[in-house]
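quick one: magnesium ion bound model?
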Amino acid sequence: MNSQRTAVLKATHINKYFTEPVRFQVLKDISFEVQKGEFLSIIGKSGCGKSTLLYILSTMDTSYEGTLEVNGQPLTGRSQDQLAAFRNEHLGFVFQFHFLLPEFSVLQNVMLPGLKLGKFPAREVEERAYQKLRLVDMHEHALKPSSKLSGGQQQRVAIARALINEPTIIMGDEPTGNLDKANSEMVFDIFREISRTNGQTIITVTHDPDFAAGGDRIMEMSDGKIISHGYEAKI
Amino acid sequence: MNLKIAYNIAQTHLLTKKKQTMVAMLGVTFGIAMFIVMISFMQGVNQFLEDSALDASPHVRIYKQITSDRPSIIQTINPDGFNVVHHQKPKQELARIKNGLVIARHIEQQPEVLGVSPQVSTQVFFNVGSVPVPGTLAGVDVQREEKLYRLSKRMKSGTIEDLQSNSNGVILGRLLARKLNLKVGDKVNVTSSTGGTALLRVVGVFSFGIQTVDDARGYVNQAKVQELIQKDANYITDLHIKMKDPMQAIPFGQQLARQYDYKVEDWATANQAILAGEKIRGVMTFVVSFTLLVVAGFGIYNIMNMNVMNKIKDIAILKATGFGGKDVIAIFMIQSIIIGFLGAVLGVMIGFSLSYLLSITPFNAGDFLAIDTFPVKFDLKYYVMGVLFGVITTLLAGYFPSKRAAKIDPVEILRG
Ligand SMILES: Nc1ncnc2c1ncn2[C@@H]1O[C@H](COP(=O)(O)OP(=O)(O)OP(=O)(O)O)[C@@H](O)[C@H]1O
Ligand SMILES: [Mg+2]
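yep, here:
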């Protein structure tokens, strides 16, 4: 049913080990693809390696075996600074604990990655930031210091920040983990909306079955392995 | 550009931690202010001592050295033999410079020379009652001496013209006059080492502001000294030379030493004690200033380190959202530079104010030095050096914490 069957993310034979306190394998031969515009949820028991996988996919963690390709570009083995620039342009990230810069206003928080990208002049970045804030219904708080917001509000601002550079992929690590039902639904609606209308890809780790069920596909992990890619269930 | 964002972030960080910023800044300010005050004062002392030494002494002095370190006759005849000569005495010779006046005229014609003053100087006793007070009489040509030492400016009473018009006149050093209890118009009896005596009339009192001179010297007409020691009118013992540029004295002196068979001494050699003192003060100034700046540097280092630790989450977020290591370094280096620069500017202002206050503070050095306030040298160079030092210290102190910040692994922090 999806007309454009192009993989925007391709992970092949990813293995990851932790050496502290003892050497053990967290991820075992992980291989999967994510299509453009797909809304993918990753589920699994606590401690099975979901966050670890997500940090590798986000290019922040570079100590793994295997290869990672995003947007057709091989990312394995690139330098930290190259990866930072890549993240800036192509990846948006929403953390579980709505990490915002507390000294800066809501608007500044959203603008910073845009200013860093430098694709548009500051005036236009500001306009875009307002537009993203409106999308998450936070535009009225634009000039507030970000430390003066509630948890749900901060999470919505973090989503606006993740969207500012129109990234190919938006990743979330339990983006609704700290939110009540109403706020969770709101975040879900935003994700659903941008995946459908903008063709942006969503990859989220979640424990919320409703959230996962609303997406296009659910990938299940157990003990460092993918036990279900979720294609079967969808059919 | 990226530097602009880095600057904005740095500024926000500094402004949200005003107190910390101030403490780091004041460390630099204090270091630089003290550096400027120290160096201005020390160099002021150096300059003052050098000036007063140069003022009162010739740049080059030519005189005949009477020594006993000549080879004995037997040594010249039998150089390879085992010769022992005990306690050799100096030859009977005069301290005169032959053709002194001709040489003086010749040297005077050199373009780099300001003036030459031929002198006859001799040790004398001034007799006050039954107490002989030792001193030196310098027989001078007053006009030439004036040209070299601006004697008229140093007269406490009487004038130099009085000496010219009075063949028995003497101008005494201020401390000598006080010791002898003599005032202008009084008479004093002097005895030379060769036994001659003369009755002199005090026509003036001078002060160079240097104890060793003011305490011992008297100026008389050349003919009077020549008469006192029973020598002819061509008898000259010293040639004092002033150069247009004091620094020229050393090569010029070497040239003269090659030309004439007399002892030639330049001011730098004659004032080695002062120059050595200058060196010691110079080293001291730099050691103390350096220490102050290092302390300030450690202050900044600590505060920047703390800053990085406090901002570790922010750094992780910035990196996660696409800021590179260079951006992070820039953010923290800019903070250091701002702290260093503002601290330095404030330090320069405070340093200048303190130096100025010191330079108008009364200082009584007694008879030893002619000085009313602390000597302070104002030189733009020191201020530029202070700012440079300050900025360099902060750059160094900021670099290592920034480098650390750049190395932070965002995954470790974001994992929570
Ligand atoms: N820095 C680390 N060093 C060593 N072991 C780690 C480290 N981080 C995580 N682990 C271990 O790796 C495993 C996977 O951790 P991970 O955080 O990926 O789990 P998760 O699936 O995200 O769990 P949860 O649902 O609770 O968030 C766990 O057993 C955890 O203890
Ligand atoms: Mg997790």
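DSSP finds eight helices and ten strands in chain A.
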